[in-house]
User: What shape does this take?
Amino acid sequence: DADVTQTPRNRITKTGKRIMLECSQTKGHDRMYWYRQDPGLGLRLIYYSFDVKDINKGEISDGYSVSRQAQAKFSLSLESAIPNQTALYFCATSDQTGGVDTQYFGPGTRLTVL
Amino acid sequence: GIQVEQSPPDLILQEGANSTLRCNFSDSVNNLQWFHQNPWGQLINLFYIPSGTKQNGRLSATTVATERYSLLYISSSQTTDSGVYFCAALTSNDYKLSFGAGTTVTVRA
Assistant: This one.
């Protein structure tokens, strides 16, 4: 969905490097999420944020940190990248307008840690 | 958290065929969504369907909440339907969607 953008789209880095993945959205949603996808698996939640002052750990937050700089921006950092963090990373947004909480995903960032 | 299981894991179709994908979940849900991930990796929301039936073109979905399952129907399949279909669910006691492992659909011309 073009309303949710991620940068970079692809990144190759080395073990031990600090990496930041950025997500921006123009949908005006309060809720934002970071997921990772590994081959043959579904998506697993890393962190989520329901508003600018709210940050919550997901099921696999170890080795990651996040920053919610504004309603529209949510960044994911790998403080010291390791090879098993090689994956496809997705940012998503949602709101609860009308009681319907539908998630919209960015195009993904393919990260390779050597 | 809630467990979400999808079947079959893989499905190969001839163009024009119909198919049904199933999603079972382990608890009562207040949010059930179907997504399609195309071969380029993009995830598209297909349906928000915690209960009832919805249709969108050749796709339709039905969730029977009392029996804890949802079905996604693909009719007159086309090669552009290829990709991975994910089901994701959320209970009233949780704030995060739990995803199934997906069904990989390959439609052959």
